[in-house]
């Protein structure tokens, strides 16, 4: 059993064709359930992408959705949270800091996460480098907020260890197209095992990247089960 | 003997990799980076890492040569020929310092005379840009000596000094974000190849095989500094045909380096 907490649905602007990739790539790696955001919502138009994703989710049972929030459009965000979270097909919020020009330190990101806390669901936030430390601080400053540090800082994974140590409502998700030796093992050895999740960034990145990196860490059966699905099931209530 | 992963857990990579073996990995290093954490890159340990991943030979260059002293580093690489462990071996690859193109050209001649078939370039580590005259100079000298060039750097820039001279090149850092740029230049340059290490989108290998042929793809791990399991899994679980998988897993590298 695997739950992928960082996945996407929709086309990308790179040289790739991922139209049929969701279920096919999930099957290849034994991923039973993926929580996806619409690429259109992440990259360009959040309401339009959320709307399209809502239609998709009505027709299948292996994908759940993130409501994507653009921190520069908080009224639209509030409207979408009200519309989609009650359907039960959306279980969290996705915020990409780069595509929206909203770094973790920006006031609009802080306001967006306050909105998420009010909605009561977890937020997956793109982090890179030391920004994961900023995310931990925002989380500490926002009562009730639960955040997933997407990519767990990528090359800033040691900052992610520090961030997780300082905030018990911050979860780490490992996907990255690079796989430096020992990255996952080092994080798994240092972080509370209940706050490690599995994510792939599919369909942008093939699941082999995160799957192989986690496999290389040689987690114990108990730790692997927590990473694979148990922590995600608890966090999202699924 | 294979590396221990989450065998028996949800993350059982070897179940997915099956019987795939790599006969020649094009991207292996001995030595350590002084500016980053990571393994010391001791040759015996690197060889055991390859063996645990069923990589039977690794085209290995010396970080000592790349970062400090070309000649003694390359001598270290040449000595790797004698090592064996658990059924795996090294194929030595030379290195030059692009910050000194005059001595680099002399070193290329020494390497070729010693039977080395490939030279590896480290432009990022040496702070050298694709437009620097030294890169063009080394590209031409290596091609004249019939050496295959393994190069780091962003393919969108590092294709240029190798274009139009009949060079045989493997771009080691091609990221799937830049696959389109590689494909359009490779269509014009039959000697252009790429490592699969960062071709991690769901259809990158398949798209490359369809556009320019699987004979342009070479398995590269950058062991011991990166996890060999990731490109292994990508290759084993993708949509390439068995003969194409075998070519990527070392057949193509053997043609270029052995």
UniProtKB/TrEMBL annotation, chain A:
Keywords of the record: Lyase
Output the Gene Ontology terms for molecular function: carboxy-lyase activity; hydrolase activity
Q: Which domain of life is it from?
A: Bacteria
Q: Where is the Amidohydrolase-related domain positioned along the sequence? A: 3-238
Q: Which InterPro entries match?
A: ACMSD, Amidohydro-rel, Metal_Hydrolase
One Pfam family recorded for the sequence: Amidohydro_2
PANTHER family on file: 2-AMINO-3-CARBOXYLMUCONATE-6-SEMIALDEHYDE DECARBOXYLASE
Q: What is this protein called?
A: Amidohydrolase-related domain-containing protein
From TrEMBL, chain B:
What SUPFAM superfamilies does UniProt report for this protein, alphabetically?
Metallo-dependent hydrolases (SSF51556)
Q: Which InterPro entries match?
A: Metal_Hydrolase
Q: Which terms in the Gene Ontology molecular function aspect does this entry carry?
A: hydrolase activity
| Swiss-Prot/TrEMBL keywords | Hydrolase
* Protein name, as recorded: Putative TIM-barrel fold metal-dependent hydrolase
Q: Which organism is it from?
A: Nonomuraea muscovyensis
